[in-house]
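seq:
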Amino acid sequence: MHLIHTLRHAVLALIAVFALAAAPALAQAPEAAKSATTIVENPYGIEALWAQGDFVSKGTLVILAIMSIGSWYIGIVKLLEQTRLLKEGKEARDEFWKAPSIDDGARKLGEDSAFRYLAEEGIKSATHHEGSMTDSIDLSTWIGMSMQRAYDEISDRLQGGLAFLATVGSTAPFVGLFGTVWGIYHALTAIGISGQASIDKVAGPVGEALIMTALGLAVAVPAVLAYNWLVRRNKTALAQVRHFSSELHMVLLAGGKKGVRG
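struct:
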């Protein structure tokens, strides 16, 4: 029994010695792990691509950047234009048709309002119909032509820039694909020069290729979504303009010059 107690005390003493010896190493392990995580950096990111890439890679990045900036700028500008036009449509419904005459209704609208522009063009067509070469055209046709011309100008202005979004949405993936092919070409060149397909030889060019693919999709997807959304909003806004133009045409035609104060 005395021997068993002696062995047990000896084992406990050895465990205590090992624990004291391992304590400093265990205390330094988290610090070493922390320093290792802060020192390691990604050598194949976009910064490395710009610093180590050739003029083709940099040119592809610049083109994608221009496409992205242009898409966001046009998308925000067209959204503001559509919002303003929809607000002007509500203002025309609430203010214009309550006025005693078309002249008074037009003056109640904003100076830059598209609906005021339509009203002014309708007034001009009704008041300048007689006593000129347009006498041979009946009043209804002449007013309709004037209103249609004004509507087309508003529509063209509202749809301006959407072609750029459609172009970016359809071409940006191919621009990124071009960068991908160029990166794979550099990977194959590195393998041929070194004579071995080690990971350190191909990681950079393959990473460049993958980055180009991702950037092409990142530029194209927002452009396509913005184009489809803005086209739908354009239809809503132009429908209000078209309805206002048709109603104004009928008022001018039914009242003739009675609705216009000369």
